[in-house]
Amino acid sequence: MTEELKTQWHPAFCSAMKLELIEDGEYLDYQSEYNLNTKPLQIDLLVVKKIKEIVIKNEIGRLFKKHNIIEYKSPKDSMNVNTFLQVIAYACLYKMYEEHVDDIRLDDITITLVREVKPVKLFRWFRENGYQVDKKYEGIFYVIKEGCFPTQIIVSKLLSKENQKWLTLLSSSLSQEDAERTVTQLNHLAHEVKELYGDSILQVALKENEEIFDKLKGDKDMCEALRKLMEPEIKEEVQKAKKDMLLNALKNGSSATEVARVMGIPLVEVEAVEKELLQLV
Predict the structure, then answer these.
(1) Are 21 and 5 in contact (CB under 8 A)?
(2) pTM of the entire predicted model
(3) What is the per-residue pLDDT for 34?
(4) How far does CA 152 lie from the centroid of its chain?
(5) What are the DSSP calls for the chain, one per residue?
(6) Most buried pick, 98, 138, 140, 280, via CB within 10 A?
(7) Distance of CA 54 to CAs 61, 107, 238, Å?
(8) pLDDT value at position 223?
(9) Residues sharing a CB contact under 8 Å with residue 121, sequence separation 6 or more, in sequence order
């Protein structure tokens, strides 16, 4: 997995979480990086604050209290006892750096660990060390021990695709049915919601499952739906290619007037690129 793609998993996860919990979104505050007076926590940490005492409708939020520390691992990252202990440490530091003493109550903090595949060795460690592991919902396991923060392990591959429509798309092994579901779900989002949350999910799904999405192009309806979904990205690529052509022509000594005439582009547009070029010199 490239470094670029690694940095795309966390934003996609944050977007998927917000879409899963969108019914109660007005009562939740999200922070994808939490500053502990030294430096932001690791990039794959998400803090969700519940700003009103309600029961979250989606099953993944039923455990949530006022302060919820969430660790997400992309498919190729491991999740072991050190991961668990690290998140406990984060939760303790989160409490330590409160503005006033006991602003954050210990019993108002929960821990959530999310991974596509079940962390079998970690589950074994839990059982061998006196933790109770209960399957609460499909793909959601509660980890219980006296004195421990309320904890849940979410195995996205085992989640209900009806109840958790978005986390189940963050996979490097989507089926053709999943790919079709990705396109359909994203096309049904309102434009502003798609821009805020949907695009990052789409980028991960496409880059991790190229072969499956290529197969969709053989289906006329799906191909059109996918084209519609990717239209903003296509326009952006076209605009970039057009700008590169203008820059090259101007760098080679052609005047803005000549470039505009030859390429059939409004002079004002070429002059804007020329101005940008001059600022770079």
Answers:
(1) no
(2) 0.78
(3) 58
(4) 19
(5) --HHHHHHHHHHHHHHHHHHTGGGGGGEEEESS-B-SSSBPPTTEEEEEE-S----SSGGGTT--SEEEEEE--TTS---HHHHHHHHHHHHHHHHT-SSTTSS-GGGEEEEEEESS--HHHHHHHHHTT-EEEEEETTEEEEE-TTSPPEEEEEGGGS-TTT-TTGGG--SS--HHHHHHHHHHHHTS-HHHIIIIIHHHHHHHHHH-HHHHHHHTTSHHHHHHHHHHHHHHHHHHHHHHHHHHHHHHHHTT--HHHHHHHHT--HHHHHHHHHHHHHH-
(6) 140
(7) 10, 16, 47
(8) 75
(9) 80
Task: Quote the pLDDT of residue 247.
Answer: 81
User: Which residues of the chain are under the pLDDT cut of 70?
Assistant: 1-7, 33-44, 230-238, 280-281
pLDDT of residue 253: 81
Q: Which tokens belong to 234?
A: 């296509």
Backbone φ and ψ for 28, nearest 5 degrees, come out as -125, 145
What are the φ and ψ backbone dihedral angles of 115, each rounded to 5 degrees?
A: -150, 150
Residues written for the chain: 281
Q: Which region, left, alpha or beta, applies to residue 54 given φ > 0 means left and ψ of -120 to 50 means alpha?
A: beta
d(CA 108, CA 55): 14
215 contact partners, CB below 8 Å, separation of at least 6: 176, 179
- Residues 33-87 have pLDDT tens digits of 655 555 544 445 799 999 988 999 999 999 999 999 999 998 888 999 999 999 9
